[in-house]
Amino acid sequence: MQLGTMLAEGKTKIIYAHPDDPDLVVLVHKDGITAGDGARRSEIAGKGAIAGRTTANVLAYLGREGIATHFVSAPADDMTVVRRCAMLPLEVVMRRLATGSYLRRNPEVAEGQPFDPPLVEFFLKDDAAHDPQISEGEIVAQNIATAAEVQQMIATGREVCAALARAWARQDVTLVDIKIEFGHLPTGKLIVADVIDNDSWRIWPGGEKARMLDKQVYRNAPQVDEALLAAIKERYLQVADMTASF
Prior knowledge:
Layout: E1 6-9, E2 13-17, E3 24-29, E4 32-35, E5 40-43, H1 47-64, E6 71-76, E7 79-83, E8 86-87, E9 90-97, H2 101-105, E10 114-124, E11 133-134, H3 136-141, H4 147-169, E12 173-184, E13 190-193, E14 201-205, H5 216-220, H6 226-243
Antiparallel strand pairs: 1-2, 2-3, 3-7, 4-5, 6-7, 8-12, 9-10, 9-12, 10-11, 12-13, 12-14
């Protein structure tokens, strides 16, 4: 597919104008993997194509579940065509089980404690400030989103979480938590946007943390070597294949 002008570049993707439709953009998924606000960076050959496959599988599934996203098509494994959105500078995290950073902030909570409905937390996208947590009131006060939009993100986030938890449960995999993002269409409508791939969630086969298939393997590793990156690639390929059944 021919690409238009490059519009932006992030840690894991490059955004290009669509060559024929100004209301669309093309996401090209990169081979990079990062952790610690970008302090740890590696390249995994082919990861972009794997991430693109997973994102297409997940967003197409959410659309079939009646959840509005910006997904249009996937003309190649490493390319996703999406509707142009003005992204909110927020990461919206839905937690079904207590683990990770939540435990560091709440040490009195036991790992694995369930949240029903899923606990929703907001984080401001700011690597320099280490993506600080932000309250609903602060989001409104800083004109990031309206109070009604905050409630919409909470409700939609839980719908996304429930839909993906059902899909993973059919393969005996527990969705522990997931990070999603939102953007405004030119009409002002707020929808699920950006990507959802194996960097976006924690997934534990059989509910066993030791068998995790997600990016946490990379975050947890005391050091990075070729064997680790090869093992991560195998997990990501497995996840892409598994999401194809969604």
